[in-house]
Amino acid sequence: MRIKDELFGKEVLDADIQIVGKVHDVIIDKDTFEMTDLVLKKSGLSEQIKSSEDVVPMELVKVIGDKILLKGEDDL
Length: 76
Prior knowledge:
Elements: H1 3-7, E1 11-13, E2 19-28, E3 35-41, H2 45-49, E4 53-57, E5 61-64, E6 68-70
């Protein structure tokens, strides 16, 4: 998988199917070359007002498809 082509810009949804943001970058472990975190940029009005980023550990990712779905409390 090519990270840039496959992940960057994908919408990330929480367990309640609310948009959390879009993938802006990924963090990769330099020793194992595994993705450890997704860096999200807020989308919508909050993105226009203030540029902010959230870091989401890959352990919280449930499904990666057309969109990225995060695990809910029931999944943890």
